Predict the structure.
Amino acid sequence: MNLLRRSFTKGQHVVLHGLGGLGKTTLAEAFAHNYENRSHEVLIFRNGNQISEKYILDELFARWEGDEKANKTHPPTAQTIP
């Protein structure tokens, strides 16, 4: 958890990967809900091997575009995307 916190503090992107059942999603969700610096939005994609890069980019762009259209800042959130 400390390594994740330090990485986010430095502005780095973080990817958790490994065999199924090791607790990657549990760790990511716990971190996202407890992250002290709320200036970032944390998105968690499950079943990454079944999700295309296009899907991820489309999802991120749609969220960014929604923020632009709303013309306001949304509070950061942690979301799990199936």
User: Anything to note?
Assistant: Confidence is low (pLDDT under 50) at residues 69-78. Residues 2-81 form one domain.
